[in-house]
Amino acid sequence: MTNYILIICSVIITYELLNLVKFRKILNSNIIIYKKMYKIFTFNKVSDSRKQKLVFNYSKMLIITSIKILVLLSLIIIFNLILNLFFNSYINFLISILGIIQFTLIFIIYHTFRKNK
Question: Is residue 78 a contact partner of residue 69, using CB atoms and an 8 Å limit?
Fold first, then answer.
């Protein structure tokens, strides 16, 4: 029973953290930068020196957004590991098939409730 309560708490905290840092915006900016870099390599009318400058700038932006994503995912993992320190079987339950299904379903349900607010 405590595992179910922990999953609900974990879903709520994870969802709110993702909203707080605007995770979707970070991912979209990462994808946009990749698309721009691809266009640079396929576009032949731009000089090589200009391409180098653009690729360097886009690479810096990609590193920054990738670090943001890694830090956020690390925070979520650390939070779940801390919960596991207090409740020993939590991680085992969370990574089981039943735990993944429950986490996903609760996440979707919580998302629909928050979206309708």
Answer: no
